[in-house]
Structure formats: C-alpha cells, structure tokens
Amino acid sequence: MSTPVGQRIQALVEENPVMLFMKGTPDFPQCGFSARVVQVLNHLGVPFKAENVLADPEMREGIKIFSDWPTIPQLYVKGEFIGGCDIIMEMAQSGELQTLLKEKGIASAAA
C-alpha cells in the first residue's frame, strides 16, 4: 500500500515490536473489543504502542486495506498481522499468544 497513510502504517508496524491499531487509547478505549485486547496485553505485561484510529479517518480506513481485515482492533507483532479481538482472546486463553510473543523475542511480565 503505497499511499501516504499506507506508508505511515508500514512505518508504525516496522518501528514498534508490538503495535495495536485500536479505537481510543490504552487508557481510554472507545470500544469493548479494543478494551479487551489492551487488557490482555496489560495482563501479560507486554509493552506495546497503540494508534487511535478514531483520531484519523484515513488511518481508520487505511488499516483495513493494509491488513485486508475489516475490523478494528488489529494487533501486529514484529511486523506480522496477528488478528483482531476474537483471535487475540482465543490465542491468550490457549497460551498461543504467550508462545508467539516469546518466539518473537517480546519480553513480557508473564514470561
């Protein structure tokens, strides 16, 4: 995606080992799905960067095109799209998310 917003998204994904595109901010999520993903990451003690897509309509639409995924939140780990809320919740419950983070070299308090 070589649009300006696509380039911004690419830069965020590349520069931040754990990148969450969400509605609202980690301190003030604007939707329940975003809140749940933040809760999981905080519970695991994973440092992450978040981008509030509600603050930028171009970003809100651009991230859906970038990932070819229709919903927000979206979690990226080391540049790889992991999924949205349901996938993150399932992965966290099964331990798969913790394993993925460890394999990617992401330190967490739960490790």
From TrEMBL:
One GO molecular function term? 2 iron, 2 sulfur cluster binding
- Give the InterPro entries listed for this entry: Glutaredoxin, GRX_PICOT-like, Monothiol_GRX, Monothiol_GRX-rel, Thioredoxin-like_sf
Per UniProt, residues of the Glutaredoxin domain are 18-82
UniProtKB keywords: 2Fe-2S, Iron, Iron-sulfur, Metal-binding, Redox-active center
Give the superkingdom in one word: Bacteria
Q: Which family, according to the similarity comment? A: Belongs to the glutaredoxin family. Monothiol subfamily.
Q: What is this protein called?
A: Glutaredoxin
